[in-house]
Amino acid sequence: PTSVPFSLNATKPGAYTIVIRVDYIDYYGSLRSKSREIGIVVKQPTLVGSVGSRGGGGKKGSTTTWIVAIILVIVILALAMVWRRRRR
Predict the structure, then answer these.
(1) Fewer beta carbons below 10 Å: N end or C end of the chain?
(2) Does residue 5 belong to any structural domain of this protein?
(3) Reduced to 3 states, what is the DSSP secondary structure of residue 16?
(4) Range of the domain at 78
């Protein structure tokens, strides 16, 4: 068994049919081909983390970015304090 990574970039919502085709050479040296059709439905993206009727919320990623930034600042300040104490 072999796995092959791939990605799809859906630019518009709608129903699509994807044809996956695999060409390979079998144990006896014969060229083989297998294909399969897969139907997918791409939906309109939804906003995550919006705030009720007040609006303005934004995406969840921006909140995560702020949390990571704050944690990073706290770690840097803690390391600076430890470094200053060791120098004394």
Answers:
(1) N
(2) no
(3) strand
(4) 14-43+61-87
Is residue 26 in some structural domain? yes
Report whether 35 contacts 22 (CB < 8 A): yes
Question: What does the block give as tokens for 40?
Answer: 């997918």
On whether the CB atoms of residues 81 and 87 are closer than 8 A, the answer is no
On whether the CB atoms of residues 43 and 13 are closer than 8 A, the answer is: yes
Contact indicator for 13, 44 with CB cutoff of 8 Å: yes
Each residue of 12-61: pLDDT tens digit? Answer: 889 998 888 888 888 899 999 999 998 888 888 877 765 554 555 555 56
Q: Give pTM, 2 decimals.
A: 0.40
